[in-house]
Amino acid sequence: xxxxxxxxxxxxxxxxxxxxxxxxxxxxxxxxxxxxxxxxxxxxxxxxxxxxxxxxxxxxxxxxxxxxxxxxxxxxxxxxxxxxxxxxxxxxxxxxxxxxxxxxxxxxxxxxxxxxxxxxxxxxxxxxxxxxxxxxxxxxxxxxxxxxxxxxxxxxxxxxxxxxxxxxxxxxxxxxxxxxxxxxxxxxxxxxxxxxxxxxxxxxxxxxxxxxxxxxxxxxxxxxxxxxxxxxxxxxxxxxxxxxxxxxxxxxxxxxxxxxxx
Amino acid sequence: xxxxxxxxxxxxxxxxxxxxxxxxxxxxxxxxxxxxxxxxxxxxxxxxxxxxxxxxxxxxxxxxxxxxxxxxxxxxxxxxxxxxxxxxxxxxxxxxxxxxxxxxxxxxxxxxxxxxxxxxxxxxxxxxxxxxxxxxxxxxxxxxxxxxxxxxxxxxxxxxxxxxxxxxxxxxxxxxxxxxxxxxxxxxxxxxxxxxxxxxxxxxxxxxxxxxxxxxxxxxxxxxxxxxxxxxxxxxxxxxxxxxxxxxxxxxxxxxxxxxxxxxxxxxxxxxxxxxxxxxxxxxxxxxxxxxxxxxxxxxxxxxxxxxxxxxxxxxxxxxxxxxxxxxxxxxxxxxxxxxxxxxxxxxxxxxxxxxxxxxxxxxxxxxxxxxxxxxxxxxxxxxxxxxxxxxxxxxxxxxxxxxxxxxxxxxxxxxxxxxxxxxxxxxxxxxxxxxxxxxxxxxxxxxxxxxxxxxxxxxxxxxxxxxxxxxxxxxxxxxxxxxxxxxxxxxxxxxxxxxxxxxxxxxxxxxxxxxxxxxxxxxxxxxxxxxxxxxxxxxxxxxxxxxxxxxxxxxxxxxxxxxxxxxxxxxxxxxxxxxxxxxxxxxxxxxxxxxxxxxxxxxxxxxxxxxxxxxxxxxxxxxxxxxxxxxxxxxxxxxxxxxxxxxxxxxxxxxxxxxxxxxxxxxxxxxxxxxxxxxxxxxxxxxxxxxxxxxxxxxxxxxxxxxxxxxxxxxxxxxxxxxxxxxxxxxxxxxxxxxxxxxxxxxxxxxxxxxxxxxxxxxxxxxxxxxxxxxxxxxxxxxxxxxxxxx
Lengths: 262, 792
Ligand SMILES: Cc1cc2nc3c(=O)[nH]c(=O)nc-3n(C[C@H](O)[C@H](O)[C@H](O)COP(=O)(O)OP(=O)(O)OC[C@H]3O[C@@H](n4cnc5c(N)ncnc54)[C@H](O)[C@@H]3O)c2cc1C
Description:
Low-confidence stretches of chain A: none
Bound molecules: flavin-adenine dinucleotide
Number of strands of chain A: 12
Order of helices and strands of chain A: EHEHEEEHHHHHEEHEEEEEHH
Radius of gyration of chain B: 27 Å
CATH topology of the largest domain in chain B: Aldehyde Oxidoreductase, domain 4
CATH architecture of the largest domain in chain B: 2-Layer Sandwich
Mean pLDDT of chain B: 97
CATH topology of the largest domain in chain A: Uridine Diphospho-n-acetylenolpyruvylglucosamine Reductase, domain 3
Strand content of chain A: 15-25%
Structural class of chain B: alpha+beta
Oligomer: heterodimer
Low-confidence stretches of chain B: none
CATH superfamily of the largest domain in chain B: Aldehyde oxidase/xanthine dehydrogenase, molybdopterin binding domain
Mean pLDDT of chain A: 97
Number of helices of chain B: 18
Number of strands of chain B: 28
Strand content of chain B: 15-25%
Distance between the termini of chain B: 56 Å
Helix content of chain B: 25-40%
């Protein structure tokens, strides 16, 4: 790890100011950024901690649905979102291990947009809104491929707003080593239709499976997707699973998610 | 009533108190005034010619004290190979020098070609990075695949070795023609090609070393993560550095796991000593986890073709194997013994089979060195046999339980001379097979299968039997086989004046629990409380010259040395008692902690004898020496042969290919049991590692020799959720016939017997589920592989 300065502002405004320093980078739970710095793959000169900003923490119902502060750790979401959005709470409870969940945050996860991360699938399947210090970004516009998002340099996610679905479930198949999602599917049923978002599988990051959405909007039952196939060509193929295997998982897990959603 | 004390009691592991409360002292915990930090400069390419090392980039960087390169060690020795293996044609193996720091070429990713010593760790890291950036290494094509390595003579790991072959070994060469003929004329031959996957040992504590030099006396001290401090001292002092042994103290303090990887001497140990001398300051080095992945000696990595010849009823006629065994870029200390004498000699398993021939070609590649890892050679032999037997049963429509039962050696056949050179002293393989069948409720399987099917899961059951040769090892036998070391062990029992004991042992405990078990044996034998016995290990300045711990040898070999030293203590105690009680030595008996004159009520307690030995006011000094301290060296007459039978049940998710191990039953014969709880723990750990190998662990290099599984993000370790509650039994006991404790060793058993049981169960599940085209899947039997095989 290289040397760096550390600041811990108490407000979003101060955080935005601190981010103006040359080489400044936001630090939330540190579960991604700190290991990267230890490996000397990142060398920010100023770390701007977001975890001391109370307006960026917490889970509550509000306009547009469930508001989750960007600096809210996974464990808090797991414990507090269950009453209104059980599938989201279950997703948070399945991230990493207790240490990761007590530190890692939803904002960090979304800013990083790891192609195997869990939260992006929930945000996309829920049609959630990513709120930053500058604007509101619809989920469909936010994710732009592996590790790529609509965020601009220095922009800070402040909260995420999830419309509450009628039914939803997330089914994650663990990558055997990291236990991130080898593939994970989040299915959410809203009065306007069903949304299906897939993480872990595609080389272009989290995506919506349109054919399944159409089929499930017509008939919300696992059997409704039986006739569909998933094109393997855009899938990730690596040590842990071939492209065809991941394409298979997309379909199998979607069916299981529909069953789990009830 | 279970015993609560002494031999056979489940005494709680006394060392765990310090381990579990954070009070252990591991190498990296030690801080020494004036210490400096070493960081290695490691190759980022698998194969390359060192054009120049950018040492000047580090000059003047803050805190930098010294820089070393391969040049600095050109004149010192190389890390020696502990076994000389001859090829089939009689020529000796090729033994390229393994230098402290790479010189001329780098040969695997992570190969260290320079080292920096600085005031702080971060300064050393910065300087190492600067040197790496400034160095010029001309990348050469990497030799990764073993078959290509042997076939392609133009691409050489070591320029002087044209075909990348270390040796081409036949065992037993005289059997070859007979075995070939038997296979040719056999009614049925089953052939299986399989891979025994390469494993990274992943000890919880990474390797670490601290070198010290004391200019006043010229003494050196090396504190290091070693399973065998005396062997390390011998290797570093005599072979590599040329330091007189009596000028080097090696301390292996608390060591957090080894599994074999800490048997060996590594270049960093020599480096910190050389640097400590140059700077006259302590020099410390601790591996980062990524360095552990890249540079700890890996395990397994065999590619094998096995043929099993039989009649149509499944009676075995012959086994023949051809194996390519990877040794990586350099020979590690025992890497030539593992695929040969720890593998070929076990290739008849627990079975009566007249004809066995093993061929092993050992191959250099641009990968990390490969050496002994929990089980070492024996898991590879067991896996090949137990997989091919299952395949044969399927081909001939025979029951795998019955086929094994009728081919097992029977109790009346011991001692048994195997066709591959070992003399099994005792065993009862039917007993463990019967026991495991009872434990697993084999008859109830169909019902369990139906219950799994109702949940949408395919269920399968897999059996394996296993045997190993451990209690390593009779020196005169291994000497004939090519070992360059002796494999005896030693113990010193020091009875202190106040009656408590310090017992110095050559075995090293790096998690096994010796401090508890050895004390139980001493307490039992002398009739003293366990709490009065202290087991001392891991410091060449305190213990006798023993050979450390590996190969399930500590109890069978070092425990026996200790037992013999205790015999000497009792004999000496009788002499003292005879003097004190004014009786003839021959009339003194010892029992229950008392020396008594036979047929009288005259007696002295053990404590009284001990005290008198150190306060010898009226000793007849011409015939009775003061003191009560004895040392014994013990060299075993034979290996020990633990054996057993394992049954695994799995459920397979057809949609995802995921395998869940839902039950695992072990019936083992370890001979006499000293501490049942520790034995169970050893079996649990071993089976867990075996399940890891079977389902998860997979060391993968790409075609350029880059390690793709260099962190826990991609190297899958088994976790608690991946293993079931084990059902372990050790009630079938045929005590070892040639050591006084009757013990055989249990440390490696689980890792040897479990992988084939798991894979057999998976194939069974797929077959029963209608995927009859799947006859084999290579380990790790990962979800993707299982799904791909089902859908092929
Ligand atoms: C062992 C382990 C297992 C894991 N398993 C899983 C898993 O199963 N599923 C899963 O989804 N994830 C998993 N993770 C990742 C975990 O969820 C992390 O918490 C997440 O990737 C990053 O969140 P963080 O709060 O730690 O972010 P940090 O590491 O602090 O930051 C990550 C990046 O986001 C930026 N950033 C952080 N917050 C903001 C913000 N509010 N606005 C703008 N940019 C910001 C940072 O500058 C940095 O670039 C695992 C991590 C570990 C270490």
